[in-house]
Write a structure and sequence with these properties.
The protein is α/β, with parallel strands linked by helices. The protein contains 14 helices and 19 strands.
Length: 412
């Protein structure tokens, strides 16, 4: 069978490998000049840096078929929360906001509708969380699942000794309250990083696909075409003849072409500030490690510290709502609070648009129209799922189902 994989990020690459190993003729189409998508490293005159808090999980590793060049580590994290606490709270083993005092929840607001409604369920802490979270977009329109990557879908109350029993007795409380892993008796999950960076990793991945017979077409944007009830794809003026299409990239043109539906949730405007931790700095944690930051007076969202190229480096993610100078000041304050001092150097700042959000209406579109996409020979990219592992786990079974259906129809 001839298959087109649209999108050269990790999901597209794993899908291409999966299909090629099953003996199909696979072509991967990527708009840019290289594979990797959002995982690609940030290159500066002072070296390469991870593009935010990036790593590979067990499912991807299992599907790669090779481990050399990858470093295994325990996925560790913490949080820094201001948001009205008496003092800033620094927590390890918990990435959610941590608040003083005992649990405060409202029983009135639904928790499975909009992001705003779920945040309103947080009682006396709701207003502070809404003020912080609105930098991600219109919380009234965003689906509640968008709070998961923001780390706002649960709250942590370390002073309240009744949280564990409350979670066991009350389903709503269980959904809204967080417990550190060690209190849940769960060990840190294994994760992997490429020891030479993701740019080199994707060169190796490209070679793996070549050896499997996958044709990678770079600098080749794909346009979906839907005419007279029939779906096809083009790359510039070239009509691509294939049996099935796996669409792992941005769904906006796909839904507009087939259904006339506009996906309108805007991207989140971010900056990534990168640099090297100065030699002689005492590192207070085992790397890699990240802190999620919750502070209305700071633009910082996450600080990630890791080793790459034999050096300890950092990648800090901030909102693009402040100028570069203010963003750097905010990052320095967070680094000082986390034990790195305030003398670290800045190597570069990169602005980004992140397409991670969707409205409640758009979530329903992704869910209900997946069957129609499959009917037209298109495997959807799991855009309603958070994280590359979840997307891949969604895509591959659908591919297998499509391949099986196609084989059975041919034999009939």
């Amino acid at each position: 069978m001839k298959l087109a994989i649209v999108g050269g990020g990790i999901s597209g690459c794993i899908a291409a490998i999966h299909c090629a190993r099953k003996g199909h003729e696979v072509t991967l189409w990527e708009t840019t000049s290289s594979l990797g998508g959002v995982l690609l490293d940030i290159k500066t005159a002072r070296g390469d840096y991870y593009n935010g808090c990036q790593y590979l999980q067990q499912g991807v590793i299992d599907k790669l078929g090779w481990l050399d060049g990858l470093i295994e580590f325990s996925h560790e994290y913490g949080s820094v929360t201001s948001l009205g606490n008496t003092t800033v709270r620094y927590m390890d083993d918990c990435a959610q906001p941590s608040f003083d005092g005992v649990v405060s929840l409202s029983q009135k607001s639904p928790i499975d509708a909009s992001a705003l409604q779920r945040l309103q369920a947080y009682g006396s802490n709701a207003e502070k969380l809404i003020s912080w979270g609105q930098s991600f977009g219109d919380l009234k329109k965003l689906d509640w699942r968008c709070l998961i990557p923001m780390q706002l879908s649960r709250l942590h109350f370390p002073d309240d000794t009744e949280v564990t029993s409350l979670k066991m007795e009350n389903r709503r409380a269980n959904d809204l309250l967080a417990l550190p892993r060690r209190l849940r008796g769960v060990h840190a999950e294994s994760a992997w990083l490429p020891n030479e960076g993701f740019n080199q990793f994707f060169l190796r991945l490209h070679q793996t696909m070549r050896e499997l017979g996958v044709s990678c077409r770079l600098n080749s944007p794909i346009t979906p075409v839907f005419e007279s009830g029939r779906f096809s794809i083009r790359s510039r003026s070239e009509l691509i003849e294939v049996d099935k299409v796996v669409w792992t990239t941005n769904p906006i043109p796909l839904f507009k072409s087939i259904f006339g539906i506009r996906i309108e949730t805007p991207p989140v405007k971010m900056k990534v500030l990168v640099g090297k931790i100065s030699e002689g700095t005492q590192i207070p944690i085992s790397t890699p490690y990240y802190w999620q930051v919750f502070d209305i007076d700071s633009s910082v969202v996450r600080l990630y510290v890791y080793e790459l190229g034999g050096e300890i480096k950092y990648s800090a993610e901030t909102f693009d709502s402040v100028d570069d100078s203010k963003a750097w000041q905010d990052v320095q304050k967070v680094m000082k609070h986390c034990g790195f001092g305030s003398e670290q150097q800045l190597a570069g700042i990169v602005k980004q648009h992140r397409y991670v959000n969707f409205s409640t209406k758009e979530f329903q579109v992704f869910e209900t129209l997946s069957g129609d996409l499959l009917h037209h020979g298109i495997v959807p990219g799991g855009w309603q799922h958070y994280g590359r592992e979840a997307k891949i786990n969604y895509i591959l079974p659908l591919i297998d189902r499509c391949l099986q259906t196609h084989t059975e129809s041919v034999h009939v």
